[in-house]
Amino acid sequence: MPELPEVHGLCTYLDTQLRGAELTGVRINSIAALKTADPPYYALEGRTIEGVQRFGKFVCLDAGGMFFVFHLAKAGWVRYTEHPSSAALRMGKSNIAARLLFHRPADDTHIGLDLTEAGTKKSLAIYVVRDPQDVPGIASLGPEPLSPDFDVDALAAIVRSSSQQIKGLLRSQSVIAGIGNAYSDEILHAAKISPFAIAKSLDEEHISRLYDAMQEVLVSAVTAASGKPSSELKDTKRSNFRVHARTGQPCPVCGDAVREVSFADTSLQYCATCQTNGKILADRRTSRFLK
Fold first, then answer.
1. How many Cα atoms occupy the beta-carbon half-sphere of 186 within 13 Å?
2. Given CB 3.0 to 4.6 Å as the disulfide criterion, which of 55, 164, 198, 219 pairs with 169?
3. 152-289: what fold?
4. pTM of the model
5. Are strands 51-55 and 22-28 parallel, antiparallel or unpaired?
6. Taking each helix axis from N to C terminus, what angle separates 152-160 and 204-225, rounded to the nearest 10 degrees?
């Protein structure tokens, strides 16, 4: 799933390419993906893009008082081309959920933007709204972790009031915006904190380490993603991981094998030596046999 750094990179890239371009066509190929009906999506046609911005993991195209907003969910992505296809889309017959067509008059370039989603479980969501806050997922977002007013005291207030495991707390979009499964693994590894630690049990030193790790990991990833086209962002994300998706590989800090805990539809990775004082966390698929 694209998270804060990749969505930031994507928005920055799209802003440079689409700002000032006319949105000439909107094709919705998955009715299930479109979550709004008023205003109608075709009302966007003929409008000029005034900018592209990020809200958490949401991408928002500002079309002059009307907004095309999308969330890529677990398996969604954006395919950008300056040679868009003229072929008609067949409803439900491809992995393309929507196609946007643009004309950039500054250099007479025609641009195509396909929103794609792999797999059979479809969660990609599209909204056409008059205000980004009309999107429920945006209206309920927590603070941005890289905003100037999100300091260690703001994080401490969040952590000390929660009985959740810290891994789940970091992933909760209504608590902190933009962090998902991958970067929560990376942040907790950098902070040397167990993913199963109860948030309110963390002391001042742990909270300070968590804040510093959050800033370090996210700023580094945002820097790596900046300026990259959408076709390169996934590889850039994967290349910088230290524990996430590296099960069985050596921890770059201590050399111990990276371990995994699997759940029904996701998994987490951690280093026992760095994060849990050597304790092996029970895999949820087999934990009933370990009691």
1. 23
2. 164
3. Helicase, Ruva Protein; domain 3 (1.10.8)
4. 0.94
5. unpaired
6. 120
Please write down the HEC assignment for all residues of the chain: CCCHHHHHHHHHHHHHHHCCCEEEEEEECCHHHECCCCCCHHHHCCCECCEEEEECCEEEEECCCCEEEEECCCCEEEEEECCCCCCCCCCCCCCEEEEEEEEECCCCEEEEEEEEECCCCCCCEEEEECCHHHCHHHHCCCCCCCCCCCCHHHHHHHHHCCCCEHHHHHHCCCCCCCCCHHHHHHHHHHHCCCCCCEHHHCCHHHHHHHHHHHHHHHHHHHHHHCCCCHHHHHHHHHHCCCCCCCCCCECCCCCCECEEEECCCCEEEECHHHHCCCCCCCCCCCHHHCC
Which residue bears the tokens 């992933």? 171
Q: What is the mean pLDDT of each run of 10 residues along the chain (291 residues)?
A: 95 97 96 96 98 98 97 95 85 86 97 93 95 98 97 98 98 98 98 98 98 98 93 91 97 98 91 97 58 34
CA-nearest of 177, 236, 188 to 212 is 188
Pairwise CA distance, residues 9 & 6, whole Å: 5
Q: What is the CA radius of gyration of the chain?
A: 21
In this structure, which CATH number among 3.20.190.10, 3.40.50.720, 3.20.20.60, 1.10.1760.20 belongs to the domain 4-139? 3.20.190.10
